[in-house]
Amino acid sequence: MASAQQQLTELFQQLGAADQATLLAFAAFLASRAPIRTVAVRAEPEELPEALMIERPRQESIVGALKRLSKSYPMLNKAEMLSATSELVATSLMQGSDPVGVIDELEKIFSAHYEQFKSGNRS
Fold first, then answer.
1. Which whole-number Å values give the CA distances from 91 to 45, 60, 67, 80, 116, in the listed order?
2. How many CB atoms are located within 10 Å of the residue 115 CB?
3. Would you give per-residue pLDDT tens digits along the chain (123 residues)?
4. What are the distances in angstroms from CA 24 to CA 16, 29, 80, 85, 105?
5. What CA–CA distance (Å, rounded) separates 104 from 92?
6. How far apart (Å, rounded) are the C-alpha atoms in residues 2 and 111?
7. Would you give the distance in Å from CA 68 to the centre of its chain?
8. Cα separations in angstroms, 59 against 11, 25, 36, 52
9. Where are the domains of the chain?
10. Taking the mean position of all CA atoms in its chain, how far away is CA 76?
């Protein structure tokens, strides 16, 4: 019985160029979801990245605030905040909330996630 790698190679060679590209893209996607394999080595204590804290402009849209906060906190996993931020933005759009208040809440969400990141609770 051929190994999985050999089977994959044989199947790959049977595909046309477009399907090969699709298969490669799918494999890259799957690999990005896989847990990172680490080798146990003695590591120096990791220095936590600091937030960049880009200054808030006087006039800022909610989308602009999301972009600014994403740049201010590049170390955060935005997918972990997606539920809270998207719910807040959607509610503000539906209810016509004051953008300043929504941006204040977005800043609190990012700040809380950053504090959680710093404390090591990166789940």
1. 41, 18, 19, 19, 25
2. 10
3. 468 788 878 887 888 877 777 776 666 656 666 676 655 555 565 677 888 889 999 999 988 999 999 999 999 888 888 888 888 888 888 888 888 999 999 999 999 999 998 887 544
4. 12, 9, 27, 32, 40
5. 12
6. 52
7. 15
8. 55, 40, 41, 20
9. 4-33, 62-118
10. 7
Tokens 């394999």 belong to residue: 37
Q: Which amino acid is at 38?
A: T
Q: Check: CB of residue 4 under 8 Å from CB of residue 27.
A: no
What does pTM read for this prediction?
0.58
Residue 27 sits at the vertex; the CA angle it makes with 23 and 30, to the nearest 5 degrees, is 140
